[in-house]
UniProtKB/TrEMBL annotation:
Residues 104-141 are annotated as: Disordered. Residues 118-130 have a biased composition (Basic and acidic residues). This is Prokaryotic-type class I peptide chain release factors domain-containing protein. Pfam families: RF-1 (PF00472). InterPro entries: Pep_chain_release_fac_I.
Length: 141
């Protein structure tokens, strides 16, 4: 059982892990041992996820989620299978935890009349400063 929050947890049966050969450094070990982990979690059909979390997770996952709604996380940072497995699970938990956070609604506001006036005065002052920097042309005097 993977605990995401106090109220949300995912049973191990909903997660599939496949061990594959990692690319990158590692010498002969890379050619012999399948130390990289490919973790799959079916977001679309998971009974553990509330609908709102499922929708936010689909957006957050981006390219990591396919058309069928399966989230794939690959972990090959470490040389051992166990550490890569833990890394993949931690990344899954973090992604789902971010999806559980409800974003604050943005309320449209208007700037105050005083702030509009200050902004226009600032623009006028800046324009006047730039006018002072101009060179005097032959027709100006």
């Amino acid at each position: 059982m993977i605990h995401i929050t106090r109220t949300l947890s995912i049973p191990d049966s909903e997660i599939q892990e496949q061990f594959i050969r990692a690319s990158g450094p590692g010498g002969q070990n890379v050619n012999k041992v399948s130390s990289a982990v490919q973790l799959r979690f079916d977001v679309a059909r998971s009974p553990s996820l509330p609908e709102a979390v499922r929708a936010r997770l689909t957006v957050l996952a981006g390219r990591r989620i396919n058309q069928e709604g399966i989230l794939t996380i690959e972990a090959q940072r470490f040389r051992t299978q166990g550490r890569n497995r833990d890394d993949a699970r931690v990344r899954l938990v973090e992604l789902i935890r971010r999806a559980t956070e409800v974003p604050e609604l943005r309320r449209a506001t208007k700037p105050t009349r005083a702030s509009q006036r200050r902004r226009l005065e600032s623009k006028q002052k800046h324009g006047d400063t730039k006018k002072q920097r101009r060179s005097v042309g032959p027709s100006d005097g």
